Amino acid sequence: MSWLDRIRPGINKLLKKKTNDTPDNLWVKCPDTGEMLYRADLEAKLWVTPSGRHMRINGETRLKQLFDNSQYEAIDLPEVVEDPLKFKDDKKYVDRLKAARAANNARDCMSIGYGKIKGNDVVVIVQDFSFMGGSLGMAAGEAFIKAAETAVAKNCGMICVTAAGGARMQEGILSLMQMPRTTLAIDSLRDAALPYIVLLTDPTTGGVTASYAMLGDIHIAEPGALIGFAGPRVIEQTIRQKLPPGFQRSEYLKEHGMVDIVVHRADLRETFGKLLGMLKPQAKAA
Q1: Are residues 137 and 184 in the same domain?
Q2: Are 37 and 176 in the same domain?
Q3: 258 and 286 in contact (C-beta within 8 Å)?
Q4: CATH classification at residue 152
Q5: With 70 as the cut, is the pLDDT of residue 128 above it?
Q6: 105 with 4, same domain?
Q7: How far apart are CA 136 and CA 5, in angstroms?
């Protein structure tokens, strides 16, 4: 046996240990440039790439970025009937829910937090696109209503961070019913003279855009976010015309009056703090 054969088992063991100790997600590929970005650096930049792409982030990450000192009280989501229509396409709806929950460690696409932003009390509800495309279903509708009720009970403003591909087709008409229900929840905020601010992120489309995403007192958008009802490809195929550059992106919508301001992610907390301070509700009489 040669000296190489004698040391080979030790080398193989060392290499296997190093491979197992290396995280699979140490690097993230930039969607714009294809450049491999070090995950820790990207997290430090709030998941904004050097090219300026505001990458999609989950609800927990968003809440930690927005609240002072990343501290907030998580609000439990209401229970809803699962798979009310016993829906099945190439896969059962219940199986899709199980897979999404396992992948995202969340019950559904909405997360709610209550805390302070620049010292101002506020309820924040966040939609996570990674959970079944952030689709609006019964669970999301109930969560939105819960967030509005919490804001009214605590006499504070509400911020909704949108990211969705539309209504959840597996719940049929029950998903579409969430559009008027969430609208009524916003009315309850207005009746209580409480501010409702919307942050539009990439992408915000479908029934969400046709309801609570466009009913805010103030609409803020992250740079480059796709915002619209139908996607640009569907529109081009329908009207058989080429759409203008940047159509349905944040900057285009701001130019055409559908968005009030486009704000870099790093400046969101400061912006929300100023707006909440100006729109702060009057203290309730004892």
Answers
A1: yes
A2: no
A3: no
A4: 3.90.226.10
A5: yes
A6: no
A7: 61
The C-alpha atoms of residue 274 and residue 102 are separated, in whole angstroms, by 38
Domains in the chain, number: 2
Tell me which DSSP letter residue 230 carries.
Answer: S
Six token digits for residue 205? 């489309």
| b/e code 59-74 from CB counts within 10 Å (16+ = b) | bbbbbebbbeeeebee
Whether the CB-CB separation of 196 and 211 falls below 8 Å is answered with no
Task: Kindly report the average pLDDT of the chain as a whole number.
Answer: 92
The per-residue pLDDT for range 58-78, each reduced to its tens digit, is 999 999 999 999 999 999 999
Give pLDDT, residue 154.
Answer: 97
Q: How far is Cα 16 from Cα 280, in angstroms, rounded to an integer?
A: 58
Residues 191 and 209 in one domain: yes
On whether both 262 and 243 belong to a single domain, the answer is yes
- Single out the residue of 111, 254, 274, 112 nearest to residue 195, CA to CA: 274
Maximum Cα–Cα distance for the chain, whole Å?
90
On whether both 99 and 29 belong to a single domain, the answer is no
Strands 110-117 and 72-74: antiparallel
The Cα-based distances of 225 to 68, 131, 153, 201, 266 in angstroms read 25, 18, 32, 5, 15
Q: By the 8 A CB rule, do 257 and 214 touch?
A: no
Pairwise CA distance, residues 183 & 7, whole Å: 70
Q: What amino acid is encoded at 243 in this protein? A: L
